[in-house]
Write a structure and sequence with these properties.
With 322 residues, this protein is α/β, with parallel strands linked by helices. 22% of the residues lie in helices and 21% in strands. Strand 2 and strand 3 (44-52) form a beta hairpin.
Amino acid sequence: MAKYNTLLYYCYSTITDAEQFAADHLKFCKSLGLTGRIIVAEEGLNGTVSGPANACQTYIETVHADERFAHTDFKIDEVDEPSFLKMHCRYKSEIVHSGLRDPNMIDPKKQTGKHLEPADFLAMKDREDVIILDVRSNYEHSVGKFKNAVTLDIDNFRDFPSKINELAKYKDKKILTYCTGGIKCEKASALLLHEGFENVYQLHGGIIKYGKETGGEDFEGKCYVFDNRLTVDVNQVNPVVISTCYNCGNHTDKMINCANPECNEHFTQCDECGTRLEGSCSTECQSNPRKRIYDGTGYYVKVPQPINIAKKSKLPVSECIT
């Protein structure tokens, strides 16, 4: 048995007094020695936690023992060390920000796209009457996506509703949505149905489960994850690298956060440029007096920052090459 596990999960289920639940749940996680990030809302749970394998098993059993979360599907990765440095459990209005003025116009507990198990998704994805739709953000699908998938130019999932009109041309197709673990698809598919799309499906368990159960066939690149690993391998059948270094343009699948905390941009960078720029996306960020020490991973503990400069992803590559 692995020494450490990382658990990815979500559950849409009504939680009364969710703020108090979040506070109590944080204490419980800390008592097990877990690290991670959990969002709690009245609509359910959304979390990634990591720690000793036995503690993770206790966590799974305890969550399943609560009838509200008995059907929660945990994706389990064996890891060499915990995937987080701290434990956070926070209350928010939604476990995934829908971007809707009235979030209650959809309810994943009542109606979503048809769930497809990974093997069924694999069997359907290449049919002529099918469109594969990636509902993740730009920085996620830039480092990895399904072959021939339709991607959207969005910086956050809350921008998804504004892109619905762009998908109108696919209304006569079967739309197969996918995301990292499945949670965004619950709301994306529900919204598509609300907007009159009839044949909407979603990959149950997302990319992570697909990789575990099918070998990840035709998922190109790596999968972005929201912990200090930043990306994980998915495809064991026909892997390719699709992303390029933000600075020099050479192929690389290494994604990091800019070492300048006032930027903290997600971007792909090869090791050579990482060494030269000390994990920064530009010479400007490299010279910032608050620049963090780059240890080769490009992962830093999040702390609130008073300043946010413009997204580097909007700048041409030439402006960042020295």
